[in-house]
Amino acid sequence: MGGFFQFAKSSIGSKVLMALSGAVLLLWITGHMLGNLQIYAGQDALNSYAEKLRSVAVFLYVVRVVMLVIVLTHIVTSVMLWVENRRARSSRYAYNNTVQATVGSRTMIWSGLLVFVFVIYHLAHLTWGQIHPEFAHLVQKLPGGGERPDVYSMVVLGYQNGLISGSYIIAMLCLWFHLSHGFSSLFQTLGLTSVKYRPLIERAGPVFATIVVAANISIPLTVLLGLVKPAVGGLP
Amino acid sequence: MNLTLHVWRQKNPQAKGQMVTYPAREISPNMSFLEMLDIVNEELVLKGEEPIAFDHDCREGICGMCSLVINGIAHGHERGTTVCQLHMRHFKDGQEITIEPWRAKPFPVLRDLIVDRSALDRIMMAGGFISVNAGGAPDANALPVPKEHAELAMDAAACIGCGACVASCKNASAMLFMSAKICQFAHLPQGQPERMDRVRKMVAAMDAEGFGNCTNQYECEAVCPKEISVRFIAEMNRDYWRAWL
Ligand code: SF4
Ligand code: FES
Predict the structure, then answer these.
(1) What's the pTM value of the predicted model, to 2 decimals?
(2) Which CATH superfamily is domain B3-111 in?
(3) ipTM computed for the complex
């Protein structure tokens, strides 16, 4: 264990931890995006998908704890590295110039923090149901009696609100910058790259980010445009 | 050519330092950047002022002493060039040029544009060598090295230790330098016995000096006069985590 802490404290060690936790978050984001897209399959599809996820309750709590650890690892290592980096450049240049560093790579800490703030808001909105109680805890009455959480209506009614959609879209744009650098960067940090694959890996970040962000943003957009409509039957 | 220079002047490590503006008159486009500074300094001396202090030695791009940040780019905007090999023809007549020292906490300014880079030497002392048992020189063919490995080791060994990578890095990280010094051995059979030990010791030394941490922005690669590739940083990262397994 002492060895692990020594590793985690070193520059490359904390970078590796940041990259590994980032890799898990990338998988999470991909899964989340695929789940989101089920909204296009309609109310029943999305709601039964959500129900299935919740039905494995033990699993759900394990996943929550693991994700919390992963997110904390990612944030703690990145903030610590950022502080060290600021200290290392104790005197600033009078004339600042950049040759090839991308905007995304230079704003990671800010895009990351904004996305984090958004995630808290997002959880408070949809998972904990605190921020917009009028859109939370909706239920879908099932034909055979019984009911289940109506995630579909929570999403659609929520995103009909321009402010909620707007904040979602802005957060997704931050996510684009974060992923476009983060995805490519993780291969370099873990040393899983080579001269041959470098051009591919460097392009893969922006491509991956574009796919995820476009898929996610399409939801509030289609809701706002009225292409995805509230479920018939309206509010319970 | 006539130019306007904004130069960092700082009497000693403790002094505050500031940018001072000087004209550079009648400069030939064939001069190197350092020769241009020589002319400015001659004028300053004639006027009884302190000449601008800057580091230099070989003036042919091989020693790694020259170290100026020109308009925010270490060694100036020409790729793959040390500042001693940067010629004035790459500047425009009448241009304003800002000249600053390498800026990083582990590189304290000694005077004007001269910084103390012994932090890099201390990193080398921590493991940037191979322990060779003295004896006769081995036969040339006794230790076969594949051509590509030899080439890669040479690419890494091209690092002249100038520190431009640190100066240009947004995080003042020394990882390009480090990776070059580690990979020049990692690609050769002689480097294998101490390979894992070396990377751990050198990274520990680098961290202790207070350098920043690479965020994979590759500004170092863009300014490195020897065009060392960031592939070596990836290799160093890989060796580092493997060293802990
Ligand atoms: S890696 Fe390049 S920029 Fe860095 S010290 Fe070596 S030669 Fe200079
Ligand atoms: S003075 Fe030797 S490399 Fe520039």
Answers:
(1) 0.93
(2) Beta-grasp domain (3.10.20.30)
(3) 0.91
